[in-house]
């Protein structure tokens, strides 16, 4: 790539609000990971991977195809925004708090690796002919699977950051290999930009694959977390929230207007993820459990309404689809961080441990002290 082409890329991307939102999100996430990291290795690694992937997707958005160079050039130049922000934030944190150096390097390295892996995943999806929404949903789904592997490794007593990071790497490589094999078996299906071939979910083949996986995991979660282990029902709510961010947000923001009007992606995904809660509410063993599950259904419905109104409102004021995607993902990531921060003390009224959204995910037996307070002391 010549310097002239790089200059064209940068002049275009610096006019995109999504680039600046991704820059700010990356810097904020790295500072939070360094100063307020989760206490457990699994959660720490999972948070770094998910934050890096979200920031990369925000920056990349909808890649122009065949304009001023190959797709890989566009993807990596856009991914450079969160990468630069992560490096600068890490340097600032280490300079201000030298004692945080080791943790800063680990968290920042995981964040940057997630950004790079996401960039390559988006490039592969675009080359395979994925729709714009599917091209960013795929790396989000793979990152979520890798984050789940990190948490499972930690809960199984698998060690610290190194073991959880290894689980992330193996899971990402395995998912990428399976996806590549599926694409070879399916054959090339280039996306033409037409909305006429999409189905109920407003997506292409990759999106329909994700819908099938989401349906299977929702069914497994219903059986495992809503019936067999009702005390762990919070894990199902977390599963639903992650799937909603992975699939509904890109489809509701990057889809063409006529697709969004016909498919209503947010409502369709809320229905897909909410039906196990409806079944569990009807068959609940107690009125309290039924109310809790009804509240969870209401949370999914509210998320669908807010996402639809957000996308429509931004369209009305002239914002692009990439801006809508970046705003929605930044809001989702911020909500996740706030829920985690409210869980530092189990006596906090808004603690996520007693929240109807994620109750049962963690235990209230341990009070988590912010890492920044420990280092300052």
Could you please describe the fold and organization of this structure?
This protein is mostly helical and about 375 residues long. It contains 14 helices and no strands. It has helices at about 5-15, 15-35, 40-60, 70-95, 100-125, 130-155, 160-185, 205-230, 235-255, 255-265, 265-280, 285-315, 320-340, 370-375. Helix 12 packs antiparallel against helix 13 (about 320-340). The radius of gyration is 20 Å and the shape is globular. About 50% of the residues are buried. The model is unreliable at about 340-375 (pLDDT under 50).
Largest sheet: none
The average pLDDT is 81
How helix-rich are the residues, as a percent range? over 70%
* pLDDT < 50 runs, ≥5 residues: 342-377
In short:
75% of the residues lie in helices and 0% in strands.
Attribute tags:
377 residues, mainly alpha, 14 helices, globular, disordered C terminus
What topology emerges from the helices and strands here?
Blueprint: H1 3-13, H2 17-35, H3 41-60, H4 71-96, H5 101-127, H6 132-155, H7 161-186, H8 205-228, H9 233-254, H10 257-263, H11 265-282, H12 287-316, H13 321-341, H14 371-376
Helix pairs in contact: 2-3, 2-4, 2-5, 2-13, 3-4, 3-5, 3-6, 3-7, 3-13, 4-5, 5-6, 6-7, 6-8, 6-9, 8-9, 8-11, 9-11, 9-12, 9-13, 11-12, 12-13
């Amino acid at each position: 790539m010549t310097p002239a082409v790089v200059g064209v890329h940068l002049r275009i991307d610096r006019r995109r609000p999504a680039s600046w939102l991704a820059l700010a999100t990356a810097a904020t996430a790295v500072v939070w990971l360094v100063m307020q990291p989760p206490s457990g290795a699994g959660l720490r690694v999972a948070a770094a991977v998910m934050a890096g992937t979200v920031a990369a997707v925000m920056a990349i958005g909808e890649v122009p195809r065949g304009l001023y160079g190959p797709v890989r050039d566009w993807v990596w130049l856009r991914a450079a925004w969160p990468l630069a922000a992560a490096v600068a934030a890490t340097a600032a944190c280490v300079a201000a708090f030298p004692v945080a150096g080791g943790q800063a390097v680990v968290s920042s390295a995981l964040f940057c690796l997630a950004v790079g892996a996401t960039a390559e995943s988006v490039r592969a999806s675009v080359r395979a002919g994925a729709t714009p929404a599917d091209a960013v949903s795929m790396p989000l789904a793979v990152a979520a699977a890798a984050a789940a592997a990190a948490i499972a490794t930690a809960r199984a007593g698998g060690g610290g950051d190194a073991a959880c990071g290894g689980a992330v790497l193996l899971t990402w490589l395995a998912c990428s290999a399976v996806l590549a094999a599926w694409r070879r078996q399916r054959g090339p299906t280039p996306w033409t930009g037409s909305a006429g071939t999409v189905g109920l979910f407003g997506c292409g083949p990759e999106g329909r694959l994700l819908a099938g996986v989401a349906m299977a995991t929702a069914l497994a979660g219903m059986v495992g977390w809503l019936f067999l282990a009702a005390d762990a029902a919070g894990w199902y709510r977390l599963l639903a929230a992650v799937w909603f961010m992975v699939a509904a947000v890109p489809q509701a923001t990057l889809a063409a207007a006529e697709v969004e009007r016909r498919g209503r992606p947010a409502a369709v995904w809320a229905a897909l993820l909410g039906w196990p809660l409806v079944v569990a509410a009807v068959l609940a063993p107690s009125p309290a459990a039924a109310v809790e599950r009804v509240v969870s259904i209401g949370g999914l419905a509210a998320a669908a309404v807010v996402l639809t109104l957000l996308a429509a409102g931004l369209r009305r004021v002239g914002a692009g689809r990439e801006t809508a995607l970046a705003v929605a993902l930044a809001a989702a990531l911020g909500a996740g961080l706030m829920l985690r921060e409210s869980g530092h003390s189990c006596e906090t009224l808004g603690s996520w441990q007693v929240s109807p959204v994620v109750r049962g995910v963690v235990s209230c037996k341990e009070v988590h002290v912010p890492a920044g307070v420990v280092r300052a002391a």
